[in-house]
Design goal:
By secondary structure, this protein is mostly helical. The protein has one domain. The protein is built from two helices and no strands. The protein starts with a helix and ends in a 7-residue tail after the last helix.
Length: about 70
């Protein structure tokens, strides 16, 4: 039971780390284009939701998180 919880915590932490890494790579590279700097809401630019959605798509498409239990 404890190993299942630890495995779930590990999978979640890995997912968040990969998501953050992909988001930052996109923000630093193509995020510098003026198109992605447009403000949608008060402090949310157009690039923020686009980068998060593409990062999630890349993770689910190309990464495999192993859950042995």
């Amino acid at each position: 039971m404890v190993s299942e919880w630890l495995n779930m915590i590990s999978i979640t932490a890995t997912f968040i780390a990969v998501l953050t890494t992909l988001y930052l790579i996109q923000k630093i590279t193509i995020g510098l284009l003026p198109f992605f700097k447009r403000i949608l809401f008060k402090s949310v630019s157009l690039g923020d939701p686009v980068f998060i959605l593409t990062s999630i798509f890349i993770i689910y498409r190309y990464f495999d998180f192993y859950r042995p239990y």
